[in-house]
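Tokens for chain A. Residues wanted.
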């Protein structure tokens, strides 16, 4: 859609960024729809099978890299960033070093970010409509075939680092991304420039060696994939390497030098809930399904379901080291109705008995 003549494209773009920041986005950028370079990388990644059991990645194919095919008429993408690092959470390294404590990725300690950010993007679109009238748009927050990191890099919000997360010199990597696909011919921002240099801290720290080369991640080895996306048994050789990580893994972000500058999240909804930043594996393993559903209401954790939750906890308990409490907790689940859970409990008990 054309921009009204009383408002120049650059003025509207500047206003969009001001409105976005007022809504809690710490950075707003604008890019076009050309993702051809990233499409080649995506297709190569898929061809190598590095998406594992995430079959939807292959099913969507090139749609992810071609915004106008996903939303016809799209000319520009407004990319936004929102910091989430919870200020009051227990130090992540302390949790990782305590083998009987449960480590949960920092982004999942609070409320699910999807709805919050989508509402903010809708508010941004509404504010734009008030200024220029109706226009074509669609908001996305990790909810459709979108190459969000590639778009954010093109929009100048940062660069894709060696760990394949988006990085910013000013904000590190502790942030969520969202997009507003639009049919407005707005001016685009210069893309982000890479600043990883010779650093390979993320590659060296990865517990499973999932960062197989700079800027290349094999999801099949990634603990975040294994604990969240993967529905079946966790490969046995990888289980001892998972430590006490039961939902996601932040090691590559924790060691990144750029995260020394990262800002804490300002949204109260992202603060840790139900003490999940400082809780024992045994306590969480005792949750029945009703308790799991109640305690994870409004949380991203709920999406994995109780069965995978127990699977992940069984592995972590097997890595915790022998103790009466840990063994008793595992034995109490030895007859669980799910073979997936039973198999991981057996593995954990055998590991503790060695």
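Reply:
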């Amino acid at each position: 859609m054309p921009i009204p003549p009383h408002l120049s494209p650059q003025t509207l773009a500047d206003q969009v960024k001001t409105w976005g920041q007022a809504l809690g986005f710490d950075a707003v950028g604008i890019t076009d729809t050309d993702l051809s370079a990233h499409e080649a990388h995506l297709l190569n990644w898929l061809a190598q099978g590095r998406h594992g059991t995430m079959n939807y990645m292959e099913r969507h194919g090139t749609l992810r890299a071609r915004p106008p095919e996903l939303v016809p008429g799209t000319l520009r993408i407004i990319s936004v960033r929102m910091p989430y690092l919870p200020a009051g959470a227990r130090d992540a390294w302390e949790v990782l070093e305590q083998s009987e404590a449960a480590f949960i990725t920092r982004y999942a300690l609070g409320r699910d970010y999807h709805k919050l950010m989508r509402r903010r993007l809708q508010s941004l679109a509404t504010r734009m409509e008030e200024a220029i009238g109706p226009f074509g748009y669609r908001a996305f927050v990790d909810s459709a075939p979108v190459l969000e990191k590639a778009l954010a890099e093109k929009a100048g919000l940062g660069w894709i680092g060696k760990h394949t997360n988006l990085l910013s010199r000013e904000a590190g990597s502790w942030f969520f991304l969202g997009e507003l696909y639009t049919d407005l011919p707005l001016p685009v921002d210069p893309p982000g420039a890479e600043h990883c240099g010779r650093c390979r801290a993320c590659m060296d720290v990865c517990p499973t060696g999932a960062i197989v080369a700079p800027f290349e991640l094999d999801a099949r080895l990634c603990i975040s994939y294994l604990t969240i996306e993967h529905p079946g048994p966790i490969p046995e050789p990888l289980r001892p390497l998972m430590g006490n990580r039961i939902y996601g893994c932040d090691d590559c972000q924790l060691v990144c030098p750029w995260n020394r500058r990262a800002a804490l999240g300002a949204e109260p909804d992202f603060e840790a809930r139900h003490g999940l930043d400082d809780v024992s594996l045994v306590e969480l393993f005792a949750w029945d399904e009703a308790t799991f559903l109640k305690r994870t209401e409004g949380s991203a954790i709920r999406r994995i379901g109780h069965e995978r939750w127990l699977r992940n906890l069984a592995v972590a308990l097997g890595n915790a080291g022998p103790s009466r409490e840990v063994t008793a907790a595992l034995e109490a689940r030895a007859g669980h109705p799910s073979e997936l859970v039973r198999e991981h409990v057996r593995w954990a008990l055998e590991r503790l008995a060695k």
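The radius of gyration is 21 Å. The longest helix spans residues 113-132.
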